[in-house]
Write a structure and sequence with these properties.
Helix content is about 55%, strand content about 15%. The protein is of the alpha+beta class and about 80 residues long. It has a domain at about 10-50. Strands 1-2 form a two-stranded antiparallel sheet.
Length: about 80
Amino acid sequence: MRQFKQILLVLILALLVIVMVQNAAPVQFHFLNWTYDVSQLLLVTIVFVIGFLAGFLTAKWPKRKAEDDTAFTPTDR
């Protein structure tokens, strides 16, 4: 399973490099009221890294157990 994950990661990175090399033209990036002229290569890289980090952090996020909700239920006195 570990080898499968490594092969998958290498394939994803290879596809990313191919996309980056073929899309190196400058593009306009609009954020709120600002406009930036950015290389599409840089923009794809930034979006990939943000997406990777979001997925990684979501997978590592601690999961709440059902027992944790018992602190908020009323008890009989």
